[in-house]
Amino acid sequence: MPQGNSYDVIVVGVGGMGSATVYHLAKRGVDVLGLERYDIPHANGSSHGESRLLRLPQTKGHEYVPLVRRAKELWLDLEEEAGNEIFVETGTIGIGPAGSDKITDAVDSCDRYDIEYELLSSDEVTDRFPAYDIPDDYQGLYQDDGGFVASEKAITAHVRQAQSHGGTVHARERVRDWEPLGDGVRVTTDRGTYTADHLVVSSGAWAGKHLDLLSGKLQPERRVQIWIQPEREADFAPESFPGFTFQAPSGSYYGFPNYERPGYKYGRTPETPDVIDPDDWQDEPTLQDDEFLRRLANDHFPTGQGPTMAMSSCIVTRSVDNHFYVDTHPEYPQVAIAAGFSGSGYKFCSVIGESLADIVTTGDTENPIEKFRFGNRL
Q1: I need a surface site. Which of 60, 179, 218, 256 has the fewest CB within 10 A?
Q2: How does 102-119 read in b/e, with b if 16+ C-beta sit within 10 Å?
């Protein structure tokens, strides 16, 4: 191979997970190349749209709590190193019917891991956070250590810091193929060919196209986010409107206070997934999307029903069991994989990147990722 085309590690996909992996490898002195088919950062995947929620209470499983705690530590470390705001601590609130699984599971995770929280009645939610008008039989679980990660800023910070530690990142370079080469790998792109001792595949909705192992095991889905200008901005400021999840009568939502662009932001998890091909999908939000999403504001935010300020589509890539895939390839141990983050993964980017760097450099990680190994899940 020509000099300069051989690396210790190649990372395919430099979005949330990939940028964190490149950073943690470069920081350890590993000669790493990150390959991204779009821009750094870009708006074609799962990591754009300004913000991603970070809640300490976890309802997908208790195993996620130690990971989210470690993720927050690493986000704060990155913030200090980069000298730029990455994690915005607003507190978080989960709202749903009293006694519902979403509430009881969150309470259980808090009790199990000694996370301080307040369980608020519907009246207490409205008194504390005046933006809300919620049903009388609803509750809110408030936790003051959470908030959100500035997602695009975080990718930029991970890449810049990786570069400062000697890492290399190529944007606008599409991976065409990879193959094992002895104990290493060969990666072919639309610009050249590279070899490495190890490969990390963190290409989001495209992971199933890069790995036969995951073909048919990942379901890319279209999601839309909306920013709405409130009539009373003070109700939606970070100090009075924490990041939220809301199991409303009209569906399951998640959202954020006013941050940098006009309007507070939220999205909806649809009951019927909008399954897509990431290479051929309707990325431009529609008037129907706008009308559908505004149901939450119309029903529950009396001072938040102003004009739409922005909309953005992104891709959620769901695994077969809604849990992450983080493991080495069963046939090629030199290949590590991170995929299937199922709409809840971004907050974990920092710790997944650390875990992948551990796996590549030492063969394993002390972070608790056993739930995410392939095992008999494929």
Answers
A1: 179
A2: bbebbbebbeeeebebee
Token reading at 55: 């809640």
Q: What DSSP assignment string belongs to 264-275?
A: EEEEEE-SS--B
Question: Across-strand partners of 255?
Answer: 244, 266
Terminal Cα-to-Cα distance of the chain (whole angstroms): 35
Q: How far, in Å, CA of 113 to CA of 295, rounded?
A: 35
The CA–CA distances, whole Å, from 81 to 104, 149, 244, 248, 300 equal 38, 16, 28, 39, 40
Beta-carbon contacts of 214 under 8 Å, excluding residues fewer than 6 positions away, are: 207, 208, 325, 337, 339, 340, 378
pLDDT tens per residue across span 241-281: 999 999 999 999 999 999 999 999 999 998 899 999 999 99
Q: Residue 315, SS3?
A: strand
Would you say 155 and 40 are in contact if contact means Cβ atoms under 8 Å apart? yes
Phi then psi dihedrals of residue 211, to 5 deg: -135, 115
Query: 272: how many CB neighbours lie within 10 A of its CB?
Result: 6
| Radius of gyration for the chain, computed over Cα atoms and rounded to the nearest angstrom | 21
Paired strand residues for 282 = none
pLDDT at 2: 41
Q: Are 343 and 352 in contact (CB under 8 A)?
A: no
Please, what is the Cα angle at 42 between 329 and 233, to 5 degrees? 120
Residue 78 vs residues 74, 168, 298: alpha-carbon distances, Å = 6, 18, 38
At 140-174, the pLDDT tens digits run 999 999 999 999 999 999 999 999 999 999 999 99
- Contact yes or no for 154/148 (Cβ under 8 A): no
Report the distance separating Cα 318 and Cα 221, nearest Å. Answer: 7
* Average confidence (pLDDT) over 55-60: 94
Distance CA 185, CA 332 (A): 9
Q: 257: Cβ–Cβ under 8 A, 6 or more apart, which residues?
A: 90, 236, 237, 238, 240, 241, 242, 243, 264
